[in-house]
Design a protein that fits this description.
The complex is a heterodimer. Chain A is mainly alpha-helical. Chain A contains 14 helices and no strands. In chain A, helix 2 crosses helix 14 (274-309). Chain A starts with a helix and ends with a helix. Chain B is of the alpha+beta class. Chain B has two domains: 2-233, Rossmann fold (3-Layer(aba) Sandwich); 240-354, Beta Barrel (OB fold (Dihydrolipoamide Acetyltransferase, E2P)). Chain B is 24% helix and 35% strand. Chain B has eight helices and 21 strands. In chain B, helix 3 packs across helix 4 (136-148). Chain A binds chain B through residues 198, 200-201, 203-210, 214, 218-219, 222-223, and chain B through 47, 50-52, 71-73, 77-79, 81-83, 85-89, 98-99, 102-103, 146, 158.
């Protein structure tokens, strides 16, 4: 009797001599449990995305079509006129120049605030982690404590401070406020990141004769890209979305986009232009959305890097 | 002339005293190894010498200059770290030249020094790579190169080989010794590895709890450890310690319940009184087996309990006078558990320690 080896490898070993693996075989990809799970997730996703969908659709419709009242229906006739109006001619209180004024105001507020707060906080974090001085821990604790105090408590004192400095109701005023309020969280972020870098690197740079700024700029900053990305995202979205400080400290002329959006939407005269309101809202949210979209990957990486080692 | 003098150095972290009134002189061109278990203060001492830690009290003099409060860069030292501490964003060349650029060394001088160091350490082909693209051994060479280009008289090494695997460690150890023979710089080398200490050092300082226990050349440390701690720290496998008492019964001897070892020609540092509890320490490699044992002043028969063959030699665990005992045999010897073997040793090679103070007698 001859048995071909090829056939032996092809047939399954019979139960009589095979040792059964313990435990169940992993489940197939689509079984009732899985289907159930995905259905629930799908419903949840739809539920969360529905408002965005309604906004998108409404902003592309003309007013007559909106009056029909079917908010879920896609536009019969797509029109970009509401977007153009929101950007260019919608009335924000007294002026009818659209959101573009607010957009550029927000840019003028956000960029200097982000740059200044990150610059100062990174130096703070560096000093607190590498050049410990007497009382540096106390200083750090106070700084962190600052981040737990509700903003509202500090509003009036800050109004007085900025008034005395002569920058209340100006771009400088609101930039000053954003820089201060960014300090606690950003300093914490940078301190933890720098503290997680190997201490010997810092020592080596000192032996190599680099000073306070030399070590910071030439050794530490070039290896800290992830944490700078995190800080930029945090600050850009935070400051762009801010309403409270903008409305209080920037002055009517410099109202950021969020405040102007509010003014457009809350205008009581005339017909409610839902399509323009929706377009304006989407325009205002576009910047943080874009920031998340393009840098989400870095954000997660940076946060994780800080979290694991810090 | 002394290259480095440390006078009454103390260092406190808050309440904790890490180093207390420490004195140390290192001769010019000497290779000094600071050896000790982790937490003994050896790295702390090195950081103090480098100027990376401010001392609480005392003075540090390097090459006749009092550098107690000088910045690290002004002390005339180069330092090599355990984790290499290379700047990851710079190339090898950038790493080597960083310190020189900070010191504003002229460009052609920088070029000259970098080339010389790269040649000496055989890292010329790596000059344009980043540290991330190098192996551990190559990285540590670059780190040594970074100290080398500084053209200083004193090199400080903080466990430079600890992150490398065993084979590379042995290679670089020899290379470091060769480098020292060529350069004749003063080197202070911190390690917890006794093999590195024994092979590299002109003198070894064994530290414990911030205090230097013994400062001597490797042979003295090996043969005449000043206390039980040093004796047990140096040597692998560790020294045997037999528990007993000192007796002057006609001639000096070590006695326990079951042992009576005549101490013969053992040279005492201090005379002990009768019946003082002592340890007798004997290194596993100073125990002779078989025929060779017959010529030794002390002889006994033992039965083999555990055998550890290691190729080059074989380690045998047994008991002597009801106390655990181990000794080293030729690697080719065939021994089996349960064998009875005659062993012997010469008390001249032994070390006696007082049982309470643990100081050598």
């Amino acid at each position: 009797m001859t048995v071909e080896p090829y056939e032996i490898t092809q047939t399954k070993p019979s139960k009589s001599f095979a040792i059964e693996p313990s435990g169940a075989k992993p489940l197939r990809r689509f079984n009732p449990t899985r289907i159930m799970l995905y259905s629930v997730l799908l419903v949840a996703a739809v539920y969360y995305l529905l408002p965005l969908y309604v906004m998108m659709m409404t902003s592309l419709k003309g007013l007559p079509e909106i009056r029909l009242g079917n908010i879920f229906a896609p536009p019969v006739e797509i029109t970009f006129a509401p977007w153009a109006k929101a950007w260019d001619t919608a009335c924000t209180g007294l002026y009818c120049e659209g959101l573009k004024v607010g957009f550029w105001n927000s840019v003028k507020i956000t960029i200097p605030s982000v740059v200044m707060s990150i610059t100062i906080a990174s130096v703070n974090g560096y000093a607190l982690s590498n050049w410990k001085f007497k009382g540096s821990e106390v200083f750090f604790t106070i700084l962190i404590f600052g981040s737990f105090i509700p903003y509202q408590v500090m509003l009036y004192p800050l109004v007085i401070v900025t008034r005395e400095l002569g920058i209340f109701g100006s771009l400088q005023g609101v930039i000053f406020i954003h820089t201060i309020f960014g300090m606690p969280i950003l300093t914490l972020l940078f301190r933890n990141y720098f503290a997680a870098l190997p201490e010997e690197l810092f020592k080596a740079a000192r032996v190599d004769g680099a000073g306070f700024w030399g070590i910071f700029l030439k050794v530490l900053v070039p290896m800290s890209a992830p944490i700078f990305v995190v800080a930029v995202i945090l600050q850009v979205t935070g400051i762009w979305n801010d309403f409270l400080f903008g409305v209080i400290f920037s002055g009517v002329k410099n109202f950021p986009m969020t405040v102007q959006l509010n003014n457009i939407v809350n205008t009581t005269q005339g017909v409610k232009e839902y399509n323009v309101n929706m377009a304006a809202t989407l325009l205002t949210g576009a910047v943080p959305l874009a920031v998340y979209f393009f840098s989400g990957r870095f954000f997660v990486r940076g946060v994780a890097a800080g979290a694991v080692k810090g | 002339m002394n290259s480095i003098s440390i006078r009454d150095l103390s260092l406190n972290f808050g309440e904790a005293t890490v180093l207390d009134q420490l004195n140390l002189d290192v001769a010019e061109g000497e290779f000094l190894v600071l050896l000790g278990a982790s937490g003994c203060g050896k790295s702390t001492l090195l950081n103090c010498i480098a100027g990376l830690l401010d001392l609480s009290e005392g003075q540090i003099i390097i090459n006749g200059k009092n550098v107690t409060w000088a910045e690290p860069k002004d002390r005339g030292i180069g330092m090599v770290f355990q984790s290499y501490a290379l700047y990851p964003q710079m190339t090898v060349r950038g790493n080597l030249t960083f310190g020189l650029k900070n010191a504003k060394v002229p460009r052609d001088d920088i070029e000259h020094r970098v080339n010389r160091a790269a040649q000496m350490l055989q890292i010329e082909p790596l000059l344009n790579r980043k540290p991330g693209q190098l192996s551990g051994g190559q990285r540590q060479r670059v780190a040594i190169g970074r100290a080398l280009v500084r053209d200083v008289d004193v090199f400080l090494f903080d466990e430079p080989l600890s992150n490398l695997d065993a084979k590379l460690r042995a290679e670089l150890r020899v290379e470091l010794k060769r480098l020292h023979q060529k350069l004749r710089n003063t080197m202070i080398y911190v390690t917890h590895d006794q093999v590195e200490a024994m092979t590299l050092a002109d003198r070894i300082a064994i530290m414990r709890d911030g205090v230097i226990q013994q400062l001597a050349d490797p042979f003295t440390i090996y043969n005449q450890p000043v206390n039980k701690y040093v004796a047990s720290f140096i040597g692998s496998p560790a020294m045997n310690f037999l528990d007993g008492a000192y007796g002057v019964d006609g001639q000096p001897s070590f006695t326990s319940d079951t042992l009576d070892i005549a101490l013969g020609r053992y040279t005492f540092k201090t005379r002990a009184e009768d019946n003082r509890p002592i340890y007798l320490g004997i290194r596993p490699e100073h125990v002779w087996v078989g025929d060779a044992a017959q010529e030794q002043p002390f002889r006994s028969d033992i039965s083999v309990e555990v055998v550890e063959p290691m190729g080059s030699d074989t380690l045998v665990w047994t008991s002597l006078g009801n106390q655990p005992f181990h000794f080293r045999m030729d690697g080719q010897a065939t021994v089996n558990v349960g064998d009875r073997l005659p062993i012997g040793f010469d008390p001249v090679q032994a070390s006696l320690f007082d049982k309470t103070s643990e100081i050598r007698l």
